[in-house]
Amino acid sequence: MKKSSGGLIVEIDRENALRIIDKAARFIVERKLSPAAIMTIESLRPLNFIASQFMYMVAPFAELFFSPREYQEFAALLENDEYIKLLMERIDELDAEIWREEHELRVIKRKLSREKRKIFFKKIFKK
Question: Cα(11)–Cα(2) distance, rounded to whole angstroms?
Fold first, then answer.
């Protein structure tokens, strides 16, 4: 982690980057925002450096609400294309992992619902 002369974090080491990527991905996935987040990140990927510079610009205000260190590390993370790709992959992995059970339950409920409808219509049209 490198700091500029002004005390801002301008580079982040891989270990901290992976920790922040995991934390951000979990935040997104737990709120079921994965598709929207991936689409947004992918479409704004060419502007990631500009986004990180904007984050540095609004840092004095944003740090009132967020941890200054993590905020600056996230801004530094956005400058690196590799970390952006890792963030999208982690979001996708967590989404599949966390919501797999919920998806399987929905599939089972749909099958039960279909079976109930079949039985209902068989009773009606049997007469």
Answer: 5
